[in-house]
Amino acid sequence: MATQTTASCTGSTLLQPISEIINLPLDQVNFVACQLFALLMALWFRIYLHPSKTSPFIRHVVATLLGLYLALFCFGWYSLHFLVQSGLSYSVMVFAGLENMHKYCFIVTLGYLISCQITRVYVFDYGMYSADFTGPMMVITQKITSLAFEIHDGLTKRDVQLTPSQNYLAIRRMPSLLEYLSYNCNFMGIMAGPTCSYNDYMAFIEGTGYQPRHQENANGKENGKYKQTEPSPKNDVISKLCTCAISLAIYLSLCQLLPVEHAIDDEFVSSTPFYLQVIYLYLAMLALRPKYYFVWTLADAINNAAGFGFNGYNKDGSPRWDLISNLRILDIEFATSFKSFLDNWNIQTALWLKRVCYERSAINPTAATFLLSAMWHGVYPGYYLTFLTGIAMTMAARAIRHNIRPYFQACDSYRRIYDVITWAWTQIAISYTVAPFVLLAVGPSLKFYRSWYFCLHLLCLLVVLALPVKSRRRQTNEQQDGLQKDSVQDNQIEHHSTDNNCNQKDKAT
């Protein structure tokens, strides 16, 4: 297996003997080796290149050079695409007008990513994940487009025109080329992200990310023992590395035993009762998720080890290192709604989609967001089937929650019953929706849906037609209108009360 993939790996062949011994593709061995090296460099970076010991310029240079070295080691000459994509987008930022810069940058960056994905899939080898240089490009695309929108917000809009989140993320000056490359290609996130805001990254580089947090106890008095300006990430890094080890062990143990492709095997479909097919699909997807848990948790640990990711303190005074965390495993596995699952899965990508698409789309933001997500993920047809199905699932889940859930809120026992039912439904719906994402091609994906008689598609259609629900944007507008009306009424009451008091004083006089 390992020797068969050596030719398709354009990175270094230094670890080829290890690849043959453990029987894993060389590109995967290179990826893990680069991440482990990045973890060691992160510890060194935090201790020896601390902001108190060196300048932001040095930290930018070292972070960028290390990132480019890791990219070259893992992807070879394909890593040049990272610089070309970044260079083209920076040129657009500099030379295009501020009013439309973010739009042009979005088109150029996403267009370059899609062209590389088309080349990788249809020119080289369909379905080949080896030497997948587009993975890092997907994260760079998120960073570049987020940066463009944040520069546009910061340089062309007033604070009153921005939401609180947009105002916090807004960038008030154009980044230098070094700052821009460091943000996109630093060694902590070049391989697997996660994406982060430019302002948070600059605060990390400059050493201003640790703000004193004053915790108060129950009686409102300040508890001074929790005042700490720079907490250690040691405990969180160790915890996340343990999670990585467990996730990797589970994935390597189960991935070969429960392949998703078995769910469309003719003999399996014809001889297995439908309820057992449902259980098998759930278990196959459950066995697949630890791969992502491993990759994203390791990436988070690398950033934390470098001192990036501090997010304040918990109520007990312990530091939180989840600023750029990409998942919450327990919330995923025990999610009781489609939305809850998605909110805790690939969190930073969900935030990116929300900030650049959902909040800014004038027409059907839900559909636009799913479409952008499909385009960003790649050009496999299965991706589009997954995200089109996801639109129907989201609409149906929203309708059920708004119309059915209130009947189960009368007591705790009803709520528990509702939670159990919605948990089972969510796991089945997610597995059904994501199956084409794993199968990739049109034929196997449609074969899977035919074996299930498109039952969940039809069920979603019936739910949406039978249970009307207001869009989130309409609900928000109505809530804002209600708040404005209440404010007007309060002002009228206050004004009327003031007039009465004045009249009484006049009469008394």
In short:
The protein has 509 residues and is mostly helical. Helix 3 crosses helix 8, helix 6 crosses helix 15 and helix 18 runs antiparallel to helix 19.
Describe it for me?
The protein is an all-alpha fold and 509 residues long. It is 67% helix and 0% strand. It has helices at residues 16-22, 26-48, 56-75, 80-95, 101-124, 134-156, 164-169, 177-185, 198-206, 234-254, 266-271, 274-305, 329-333, 338-344, 347-358, 365-377, 381-403, 412-439, 442-451, 455-466, 472-508. The longest helix has 37 residues, at 472-508. The protein is globular. Mean pLDDT is 87; it is low at 1-7, 212-228 and 504-509.
The average pLDDT is 87
- Sketch the topology as an H/E string, one letter per element: HHHHHHHHHHHHHHHHHHHHH
Tertiary shape = globular
Biggest pleated sheet = none
Q: How much helical structure, as a percent, in the residues? A: 55-70%
Number of strands: 0
User: In percent terms, what proportion of residues is strand?
Assistant: under 5%
Structural class: mainly alpha
Low-confidence segments, given as residue ranges, are 1-7, 212-228, 504-509
Number of helices: 21
- Cα gyration radius (Å): 26 Å
The CA-CA distance between the termini, in Å, is 99 Å
Task: Name a few traits of the molecule.
globular; disordered N terminus; mainly alpha; about 0% strand; about 500 residues; 21 helices; disordered C terminus
